[in-house]
Amino acid sequence: MKISKRKFGILFIFVVFILIETISVATYHTAVLGEKSIKEESMRMQIEQEEVFLKEEEQEVLNLINQYRKENGLNELKPFSKLQEVSKLKGEDLVNNQYFSHTSPNLGTPFEMLQTNGIDYKIAGENLAGNVTAKKAVEAWINSPLHKENILEEKFEYTGICVIESPVYGKIYVQLFIG
């Protein structure tokens, strides 16, 4: 099969055009991904610069959890003020509405609560406990396979913890995780 110079020229221009478009698209996607990475890094820096105030027993929970994570070769969780606020909302809701569940009749699931409160995440989790001391609450979580999974999830980076008095359980412990 013989191709004329004219057909060859048209084919050559067509191939060059396709290559240029492919390079442009690839560059555009890289730029978009670069912007996303910059936004994520900016958010991470903002989270880590926020000052978070934990009550003494909330700090004890964080210390116990981080000690257990370190013993298992994981990074420590960092407190995040917005997560702290949402964990407090959940704790108050549990006590005021006298239920004990991951799904609130008023606030929805932990994931809906995070979304409603403008918290972005790739992965999230929640641990709940009713107990009398931080040490006993954390021990109960560690002895429960699903709660332990949350504690040892390597993708989790940030946490919010609420400890609130409960007439039924002594105290309610709420821990939210995001990564």
Compute the separation of the termini in Å: 60 Å
Described by strand count, sense and barrel closure, the largest sheet is:
4 strands, mixed
The gross shape turns out to be elongated
Strand order of the largest sheet: 1-3-4-2
Share of residues in strands: 15-25%
- The class by helix and strand makeup works out as alpha+beta
What portion of residues is helical?
Answer: 55-70%
Calculate the mean pLDDT score and round it: 83
Sequence stretches where pLDDT stays below 50 over 5 or more residues: 14-35
So how many helices? 6
Q: Helix and strand string, N-terminal first?
A: HHEHHEHHEE
Total beta strand runs: 4
Radius of gyration: 25 Å
Please, could you describe this protein's structure?
The protein is 56% helix and 16% strand. The protein has 179 residues and is of the alpha+beta class. It has a four-stranded mixed beta sheet with strand order 1-3-4-2, sandwiched between helices. Helix 2 packs parallel to helix 5. The longest helix is centred in the first third of the chain and has 45 residues, at 5-49.
List keywords for this structure.
4-stranded mixed β-sheet; 179 residues; 6 helices; 4 strands; elongated; alpha+beta
Topology:
Elements (H helix, E strand, L loop, with lengths): L4 H45 L6 H16 L6 E2 L1 H16 L13 H7 L7 E8 L2 H9 L2 H7 L6 E9 L3 E9 L1
Parallel strand pairs: 1-3
Antiparallel strand pairs: 2-4, 3-4
What's the gist of this structure?
Helix content is 56%, strand content 16%. The chain is of the alpha+beta class.
